[in-house]
Amino acid sequence: MSFVYGPVPSRRLGLSLGINIIPAKTCTLDCVYCQCGLTTRKTATRESFFPVADILTAVRNSQPATRNSPLAFLTFSGDGEPTLNKDIGRIIRGLKREFSIPVAVITNSTLISDPQVRRDIMPADLVVPSLDAADQRTFARVDRCHRSIKVEDIIEGLKLFRRSYRGKMWLEIMLVKGINDSVEHVVALRKAVHQIQPDRVQLNTVVRPPAEKFARPMSHDDLVQIQYLFGPNTDIAAQGKSQITNHKSQIRGNADELILATVHGRPVTRQDLADALGVAPRALTAALRGLVRAKRIKPVDYSGKTFYEPA
Ligand code: SF4
């Protein structure tokens, strides 16, 4: 789990600051669609992984965080579950004290039934929790949860959090073809979402190379039908549309380092990188070629697109 700085607080985009608050692939889940590979440490026990002061110093020293864009978020995102860090509340409060950048937390919601977790993430400006299943059987199939985690507790926790949380809540649902996309299940999900009452719902599917080859994407037409079923305030996040329209032709700073930091831990397309770095895609061509030649990143074809991941 690392910090991402960028205009779009989604699971997919942003410029990674390369600052971890939990060790890589430490998670309560082992989702079949995970873009960061298989979970190496599945746990539901919260810990202090790194000194809070070191994390705040690292953010302070990172170049992008010092830019003060009204669009930008500092986002807890990446390859693991951030609420496993029991210091996350102190980290969020420290960030908010020091930077005038909104803070977003992307969480898999699995610990939200814990009142302390709810208190910890309450100061964030935006929380993007996920809910991929409405019943335990489907939850176990799609997210391969830690044995102690029950989906009904997650739904109750999300309802309680929503009641007292004053920031924005965008609920993300990852749909995997043949696993959690049946009509009955989607209707059950809609019922749960109706009870939770998030500000927005983001429908997503497997658009990047997944942990398991059998995790297949939904078609755009299917997503549109499900969007219609969910009703207003439902977006299809899988399209990954950039909110940046004014792309520059030059990268500010060291292009190789910025690309490597962003590629680290999750496969990204050239367009994703361009969105994250705020440049035109063509501005990245030479740097990407050089990094592939130097065997620092490698191209991977998936679903008709070329992704880059660490070599
Ligand atoms: S997708 Fe997120 S919640 Fe699921 S295994 Fe990967 S890091 Fe954990």
List keywords for this structure.
311 residues; alpha/beta; Arc Repressor Mutant, subunit A; eight-stranded mixed β-sheet; 11 helices; 12 strands; 34% helix; 19% strand
How would you summarize this macromolecular structure in one to three sentences?
With about 300 residues, the protein is of the alpha/beta class. It has 11 helices and 12 strands.
Describe this structure in words.
It is a single chain. This protein has 311 residues and is of the alpha/beta class. It folds into two domains: 2-241, Aldolase class I (TIM Barrel), CATH 3.20.20.70; 245-311, Winged helix-like DNA-binding domain superfamily/Winged helix DNA-binding domain (Arc Repressor Mutant, subunit A, Orthogonal Bundle), CATH 1.10.10. The protein is 34% helix and 19% strand. The chain contains eleven helices and twelve strands. The chain has helices at 52-61, 63-66, 88-98, 115-121, 136-143, 151-164, 183-196, 220-230, 255-263, 270-277, 285-293, and strands at 2-6, 15-20, 26-27, 41-42, 73-77, 103-107, 126-129, 168-175, 200-205, 234-236, 297-302, 305-310. The protein has an eight-stranded mixed sheet. Strand 1 (2-6) and strand 2 form a beta hairpin. Helix 3 packs parallel to helix 4. The longest helix is centred in the middle third of the chain and has 14 residues, at 151-164. The model is unreliable at 240-246 (pLDDT under 50). The site of iron/sulfur cluster has 11 residues, from loops.
